[in-house]
Amino acid sequence: MTFRLVIDRVNPTERFRLGMLPGVLLLAIFTWAGATPGMTAEPGRITGKVSFQGKSVSRALVIAWSERSTRKTSLTDSNGVYAMSIGEGTYLLTVVHPQYVVDDGGFGCKLIDVKSGASLSIDFSLTKGGVISGTVNDGNGEPLPGQPVFYENADRAFAKPCLVAGQADARTDDQGAFRIFGLPPGKYTVGVGRQERQALGKPPGPFRTTYYPGLTEKNRAEVIDVLTGEESKLKKFQVVTSIHGFSAEVSSKDRDSGEPLPAMDFDVIKLVDGTAFSKTALKTDATGSVKIGNLDSGEYKILSPVRNGEVLLRDCSPVSFRIADRDLDDIVIRCGGAGLSISGRVTIDQNAAATELDCAIALKEGDDSLGSGSPTFGVKLDPQGSFVISGLQKAVYTLVILPLKPSLQYEYARVDGRVFRDPQIFGKLTLDMRTEIKTVAINLARR
Fold first, then answer.
1. What is the rounded CA–CA span in Å between residue 109 and residue 357?
2. Which fold has domain 3-31+340-446?
3. What fold is seen in the domain 130-241?
4. What does the buried/exposed string (b/e) look like for 163-201 if buried means 16 or more CB atoms within 10 Å of the residue's CB?
């Protein structure tokens, strides 16, 4: 059996979101650690001061938010001081003000752990927010009203969860104009339309999600510099009108007999510059085939699905294909016997069962998290902290273990009885399934 343990470090404030970026394995995590306050626990207390260039900021709204608890707020007084009582748990703490944003390099908030009866002092330094404005036209060059405009931080993938001081997103007005305010200084990209990726096989809308200055490829979007207290005015740009996509007919066959395989599950991956950009789950019909519509020109890959739980999934050979200027009807995916599975359990201090509020686990094919040709798979924990992953191939995988609470850190992993110990913020395990690993035990420790 081959096993390698690799540890990476991240800034604690960046532990809320690992997303898939070009060339980087990151797991999108917004179900972050929000502990529900106990009914009888004594509340904690948070106090602090909000300032701009050393001067007190009055009437700034301080927000403590946890997904599992009621949001708590407090207004600063004339001296810039705030105070709030709050239940035990893990929170994001931020400041909302019409002129200023949190000056912390772009993340926009602070991650805090509140203990029962404890007092914390958390100060905030603010800076003037920046603005991005522009105008969007439709495919005919006319103003495009009432459409969502979104932005993404190009400097730091972890920033947006806390950029609540300005607008989460904006919409175009009756003249197609938009204005996004309250942005920390940094580099941004802007897009119009649905930010989520369009699923394959679904009919497109009247226009495709378009990034400034008028491109559908996110990685080619122009990067916009936002400076402190200044407005970045974009040139007028036009959305890309939806066009009739191409189709591909896929047949699944038994690797040995060549017989059709009905009701076969598989995933279709759209690749952009070799990076897994989107994933769509499909199933063959009673004849062992399925037709995929709404395909743009580009590279695609068909993979055996990886699923949570004990699911019987076949071992299918991956197939790559390219859509150029015509439909395809001759794609065949060949499948053999059952794929491999692996089970495991995550504990805290070798005793308590970890939950999805305590940690997140991501799996990706390849021996390095920088491998980009396969999608990221989110591993689910049951109430006992256990997990089962089915549909694995005889290949090398990378497993990332990410504690979601500041009080926890990755400590060790036990793989088929062998212990690999190296306490760090989070762990990254390389698992060689060609040796048919069966069990993985992971322990988190309280710091």
1. 19
2. Immunoglobulin-like (2.60.40)
3. Immunoglobulin-like (2.60.40)
4. bbbbbeebebeeebbbbbbbbbbbebbbbbbeeeebebb
219 backbone dihedrals φ, ψ, rounded to 5°: -70, -10
> CB-based contacts of 39: which residues, under 8 Å, 6+ apart?
none
pTM over 0.85: no
- If one compares 354 and 5, the residue with the highest pLDDT of the two is 354
Looking at per-residue pLDDT, the higher value among 318 and 437 belongs to: 318
**pLDDT by residue (tens digit) across 172-183?**
999 999 998 878
* Least reliable range by pLDDT among 61-70, 77-86, 228-237, 400-409: 61-70
Name every residue whose Cβ is closer than 8 Å to that of residue 240 and which is 6 or more positions away in sequence. Answer: 139, 207, 208, 210, 214, 215, 216
Superfamily of domain 246-338: Immunoglobulins (2.60.40.10)
Superfamily grouping for domain 44-127? Immunoglobulins (2.60.40.10)
Kindly give the residue spans of alpha helices, DSSP state H, lying in 65-177.
none
